Structure formats: structure tokens, C-alpha cells
Amino acid sequence: MAMTDQEMLKGLGEIVDEVAGVPADQVTPDKSFVDDLDIDSLSMVEIAVAAQDKFGVEIPDDQLKNLKTVQDVLDYLRGAGVSA
Amino acid sequence: MRLSEGSPGTRILAFGGYQPAKVVTNDDLAQMVDTSDEWIRSRVGIESRRIAGPDESLADIASAAGGKALAASGLSPDAIDLVVVATCTPESPIPNIAATVATRLGIAAPGAYDLNAACAGFCYAMATASDAVRAGTARHVLVIGAEKLSQWIDWTDRSTCIIFADGAGAAVVGPVAEPDDPPGIGPVVWGSDGNLADKIYIADRNSFIVQEGQAVFRWATTALHPIARKACEAAGVDPADLAAFIPHQANLRIIEAIARKLGAPQAKVATDIVTAGNTSSASIPLALSRMAEQNELGSGDLVLLLAFGAGISYAAQVITIP
Ligand SMILES: CC(C)(COP(=O)(O)OP(=O)(O)OC[C@H]1O[C@@H](n2cnc3c(N)ncnc32)[C@H](O)[C@@H]1OP(=O)(O)O)[C@@H](O)C(=O)NCCC(=O)NCCS
């Protein structure tokens, strides 16, 4: 799948909005899910599930716990096959 | 050889629910393990749960719910010819709970067996009961989901003791009143996946429930809404026509996620977990009987049931409220 950084960020923002009710425009690369966006570990699982549908990339539980910021997720998606 | 004469369609005649008297709040649990009311409410959605007293057996709990459903059905005990108890938490493997419950309720010599599909048990039992009536091997079935999970919980393990609880719920299943009446119990859509057997289990008779919470959460929020939709399809019911959706009360976050993905925004969603906890096979009939009792559901309402749990096993069907 080919996507620009901007498109990936927008897609992730939509997911976070749907799963946790955090407005998409607050989902910026520097934000920490837990500390800035008030998203807990169960919402992170839902975000991973939705990201798999949207980006075609699976984020297993053991990887998920290392993804602390929005940038971490974007980097993971990139590394796992979402091309620029 | 001859075959038995069944009924073309089946329906639920009545419900009944029973919760033990002892209320255990989140604050009570916070005295026992390192947790808090706020954490439990936000992650699991439970405010309080009921736990059986020391002298209250699984058969007591099951009989209490079964007796209520039987009374509400208006049938005499002799009209029941099969008793099925869905449970995964008996004190011992034999005798089964169903035969004891039947005798206590004055039901003479019915077929009686226990069924273990863990938290999916009630929907499995409802399906087998309905099929028995359709096949003519039974005319009226008392179906009970009953659990005493408290005896299989490590009360020092905060990942499980905050979730599970005790209770029972029951339904009386019988033939439709007239052969041409629309059926009140739709086809079951069921399945299992033994690859995930290690996600929730009790290792042996000296052990307690262990689960991988996040793996279960991921599975439940991924795999189940398609099963729920299939059950609607199998029954020929548009999700938009559901009056209510009653999923197994495992975790409020799971309930909300599945409800969101189901696409039935008008359906009332059961949230009995708030005051009942996760009572495994009892959670759906408990929620059903409470919603019916409080007039949240009306006669003829279409309700989707979706049960899931250890195994992993799951089952769903559409029913109509009597
Ligand atoms: C069990 C469950 C509530 C745990 O939630 P979780 O978010 O997965 O919890 P984790 O184990 O990842 O822990 C998250 C944090 O909360 C803490 N925590 C765990 N249990 C806690 C508790 N009871 N009280 C307070 N804090 C707790 C953890 O220590 C961890 O803290 P850290 O991030 O500082 O390390 C959740 O996974 C769940 O409900 N899953 C579904 C299980 C289910 O429904 N089973 C029945 C199916 S029939």
C-alpha cells in the first residue's frame, strides 16, 4: 500500500477519533497516547485492530506495548510495509 | 423405525434470573488487591458484583433462577421434559447439576444434562433445547445458565478477581403456540477455535482461572461482530430491526466495541455487567430477565444474543421476547 506521511497521519487520526473519541486534529506525531491523548492499553488494542483493517499491517500485542507515541506507530507502519 | 414428531418452530415462554445477596464493590476488592474503583470502572465497566455465600452451591443458584422461569412460564413442573444447565464452574464433575435442579423443582424424571461451552454456554444450550423441541425429543425445556466463578478465582490475582462473579439466569423453551406462528428462536451460528485454548483456562482441579486479557480483548473486538451479523442473516432479520443486542457481559469495553461494529444503532445494548460482573454463561439470561422485568423489552421484540468465551467458543442467535 502506498501512502504519504500526511495520509497515514490522517488515517490514524480517524481511527483514534472513532475508537477513543479523541478529535483527529489532536493526533499529531509528537503526542504520547497515554500521557497526552489519555488512551489506555485496551484502546491501543482497538487502534491496532482498526489499523490492520485500514493499512493492512498487523501490530501484535508484544510490539504494541513499545509504541508510545503517534510517531512510533507511523514508523512501525512504514517499517512493516506501508510504502511512501 | 419411526421418528419423533417435532414442532415447526420454537419460542421462549419465560425468563428468570437470580443473583446471590452478597454485593462486592470495587472498593471492597481494593482492600484485597492493588486496584481501584476508577481503574475497574474504566477498563471493565463493573461497579459491583454478587458473590455466592459460603453455603450457597451452584445447584442452589441454578435452582433459584430455574424456579423463577418455570413459575413465570405458568407451566406445571410435569410439562418440562428436558433440563439443560450451561455451566463451567461446578463444585465437582458428577453428579451433574441439571438432575439435582430438576428434582428440587419437582420436575419428575426429565432428560437432564450439563453443557460446558464456558461463557458461550447459554446460547449453546438455547440452540440444543430449541433443536430438541423441533425434533420432538422434548416438548418443553428448562434452560439454565449458572455459574459460581468465585470458587475458581484466585482472590489475590487482580487481573481476574475484578471481573468474574456468580449468578444464574434461565428460560423455558417450547413449541410455538400455533404451527403457523413465526418462530421465536432463530438459527444458531456457532463455532470454536482450539488454537486459542490457552487464552482463558483453568489448568487443573487445584488451579484458578488464568487469562491473557489483551489477547482475549483483541479476539473479541475482531472476530465477533461478523458472527453477530451472520446470526441476523441466518434468521432473516435486518440488524436495523433489532430492539436489543445482548452480548455476553465480559467487559463493557468489549460490549461497546462490538455494538459499534454491529451497525444496529437503534438497538438497546445490555450493560448488566455494571452491577452483575462477568457471570459467564449466566450473563445473557440474567440481562434478558432483568431487561424484560424492567419493561425495557416488549413482547415480540427481536433481540440478538451473542455469547463467547473460553475454548474459544462462541454462539449467536436472534430470539423474540415472549
Ligand atoms: C483483564 C483486563 C481488564 C486487563 O486490562 P489491560 O489493559 O489488558 O491490562 P494490562 O494487563 O495490560 O495492564 C495495564 C496496566 O494496568 C495495570 N493493572 C492491571 N490490572 C489492574 C487492576 N486490577 N487494577 C489496577 N491496575 C491494574 C497493569 O499493571 C498495567 O500497568 P502499567 O501500564 O503501569 O504496567 C483486560 O485485558 C480485559 O478485560 N480483557 C478481556 C478479558 C475478558 O473479557 N475475559 C472474559 C472473556 S469471557
Can you describe what's shown?
With 84 residues, chain A is mainly alpha-helical. Chain A has one domain: Non-ribosomal Peptide Synthetase Peptidyl Carrier Protein, Chain A (Orthogonal Bundle), CATH 1.10.1200.10. Helix content of chain A is 54%, strand content 0%. Chain A is built from four helices and no strands. In chain A, helix 1 packs across helix 2. The longest helix of chain A is centred in the N-terminal third of the chain and has 16 residues. The termini of chain A are close together. The mean pLDDT of chain A is 90. With 322 residues, chain B is an alpha/beta fold. Chain B has two domains: 166 residues, 3-Layer(aba) Sandwich (Peroxisomal Thiolase, Chain A, domain 1); 132 residues, 3-Layer(aba) Sandwich (Peroxisomal Thiolase, Chain A, domain 1), CATH 3.40.47.10. Chain B contains nine helices and 14 strands. In chain B, the strands form four sheets. In chain B, strands 1-7-6-4-5 form a five-stranded mixed sheet, sandwiched between helices. Chain B has a five-stranded mixed sheet with strand order 8-14-13-11-12, sandwiched between helices. In chain B, strand 13 and strand 14 form a beta hairpin. In chain B, 55% of the residues are buried. Classes of the chains: A mainly alpha (84), B alpha/beta (322). At the A-B interface, helix 2 of A face helix 6 of B. The structure holds coenzyme A. The site of coenzyme A has 18 residues of chain B, from helix 2 and helix 6.
